[in-house]
Amino acid sequence: MSTDKSQSAGFRKLPLSHSTADSQASALRLVLTLFPDWETADGKVEFIRFKEGITNTLLKAVKRRPGYSEEDIDKEAVLIRAYGKGTDVLIDRERAAFVVAEFIRGQVCDSGDLTEERIWRGVARRLAEWHALLPIVSTPITASDDETDYLLMPFEKQLSRSRPSAKAINSITPSKPTPNVWTVIQKWIFALPTSNEDESQRKGSLQKQLERTVADLGDMPSLGKDGLVFAHCDLLSGNVIVHPHDTESTPPIATISFIDYEYATPAPAAFDLANHFAEWGGFECNYNALPTRSVRRAFIEDYLRYYTSHIPLPSDVDEHTYVDRLFEEVDAYRGVPGLYWGIWALIQATISQIDFDYATYAEVRLQEYWDWRAEREGTGQQGKEKPLRERRWAEQ
Hints:
The protein is of the alpha+beta class. The protein is built from 15 helices and nine strands. The N terminus is likely disordered.
């Protein structure tokens, strides 16, 4: 929960903070504030630590009431996520220092699970509900004279400014609600290190690529108001939960929930879809696991069927035509997740304490962007075989 007492986007905010020195005591104060009866009712409060790292600490809080089964206990359990060192660069900690969410019983997916038809159809339907039903809340920005001066500076001079204003960040898409996926990438680019000439040149190059990509795709007509939906933006396998089922036989389509919303922000639906498809390859970037054209189309058909059950399409557009249109949009966005996560990984390489080779991962993801850009603009080397990811994406 945020330390702000105000209400925003339907979330309750409390004047509490998290202490990394004693995260359990901080979490207990929060739980007892939200559920006062947990302090007086029989049964102790327990915390189960799921994971901890540079991005967050995740705890499950349970009230072990006498006579309750584990299933009963889980029904009122909550998850508490506290954001950690350095994460204000990557996520908006003004929105949340603590986040409390309902605990969901189920099985966490791995990347191989995403390729199972019963699971990807469930993901398509759940994601359609997200995009159709969750509201977009814009944060108005008022520019000071200093911020306006920053916008008028040449980019080379902007690099020397250690903390750009929100107005400068949001200027990448001045006509759209903020924050959004483009302003997030802009914020990350501003945060890239420039300790030597190579880093400064890379930062300038990525800034130009962001501007090109926004010019190419940013105003593409799409679902949602202003072409934006409230997107998850991090639908990797570990954030997809398959609900348990009561029947003896496995249902043909899984019931799905999503977790971990710290990167959620308004974005084009095509970005969220392309980003999820990229996650079929996992952190290993196994491009042979990516969905083919026929699978992507079937996914999008299910997605649109459920999206339009909540928000009907314009009367002059039939569903088949819109499937074609969204399929092409997703195809156009296929390289953007590489830019997004490549820049993210460059920052993680400088701040993260997790044992993961973020620097190499950044190069792999950014290469996806460069390969897409070359294919889009026809600048690939003549007579040379296309990169594996581009070949896989084109498979029927």
